[in-house]
């Protein structure tokens, strides 16, 4: 989430930090799985470069999945860690790529999927095919939320997070 191009980076970072705190504070915390994108050589997220490291360090018992595709289930062992009927809460980057693909794949597996508004983000997108017009990040984020809502993903607001992990 570093980088000047993500307009909501500060609020999304704070929200994800709050979600992690709420989850980790529970008597019986949920399984928290960190997913890290592993880019190609010279990509900003090339393995073992500053852009590859996770923003929030995992605790020793929290698995880290390295992925090379938008869908975090594709080519990883994520499906082995998450039971096909488990509830999956998704946060992070990048709304119209990794978030959309991973939520869609989890739904296809039979998972109940929750996406938290304000805890996923993307960049403003320059539409080369449309004369260089810019689609603002918040518009893209809302479009993805609407699409995923229609597909069956449950959308929650940050105000609902404190109760999200209670008595589960």
Structure description:
- The protein is built from 5 helices and 7 strands.
- The protein has a 3-stranded parallel β-sheet. Strands 1-2 form a two-stranded parallel ribbon. Strands 5-6 form a two-stranded antiparallel sheet.
- It has helices at residues 9-25, 78-81, 95-109, 137-151, 161-164, and strands spanning 34-37, 64-67, 87-93, 112-121, 125-127, 133-135, 154-156.
What's the quick description here?
The chain is an alpha/beta fold. The chain has helices at 9-25, 78-81, 95-109, 137-151, 161-164; strands spanning 34-37, 64-67, 87-93, 112-121, 125-127, 133-135, 154-156. A hairpin with a 5-residue loop joins strand 5 (125-127) and strand 6 (133-135).
Topology (elements, then pairings):
Layout: H1 9-25, E1 34-37, E2 64-67, H2 78-81, E3 87-93, H3 95-109, E4 112-121, E5 125-127, E6 133-135, H4 137-151, E7 154-156, H5 161-164
Parallel strand pairs: 1-2, 3-4, 4-7
Antiparallel strand pairs: 5-6
Helix pairs in contact: 3-4
Q: Based on helices, strands and strand pairing, what is the structural class?
A: alpha/beta
How far apart, in Å, are the first and last alpha carbons? 29 Å
Major sheet: 3 strands, parallel
Number of helices: 5
Give Rg in angstroms.
16 Å
Query: Per the principal axes of the C-alpha atoms, what is the gross shape?
Result: globular
């Amino acid at each position: 989430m570093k980088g000047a191009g993500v307009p909501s980076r500060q609020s999304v970072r704070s929200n994800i930090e709050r979600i992690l705190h709420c989850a980790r504070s529970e008597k019986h915390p949920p399984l928290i799985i960190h997913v890290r994108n592993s880019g190609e050589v010279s990509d900003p997220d090339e393995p073992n470069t500053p852009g590859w490291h996770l923003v929030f360090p995992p605790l020793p018992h929290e698995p880290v999945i390295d992925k090379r595709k938008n869908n975090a289930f594709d080519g990883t062992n994520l499906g082995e860690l998450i039971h096909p009927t488990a509830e999956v809460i998704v946060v992070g980057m990048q709304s119209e790529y990794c978030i959309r693909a991973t939520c869609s794949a989890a739904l296809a597996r039979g998972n109940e999927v929750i996406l938290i508004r304000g805890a996923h983000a993307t960049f403003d997108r320059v539409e080369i095919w449309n004369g260089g017009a810019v689609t603002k990040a918040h518009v893209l984020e809302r479009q993805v939320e609407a699409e995923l809502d229609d597909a069956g993903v449950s959308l929650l607001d940050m105000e609902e997070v404190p109760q999200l992990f209670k008595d589960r």
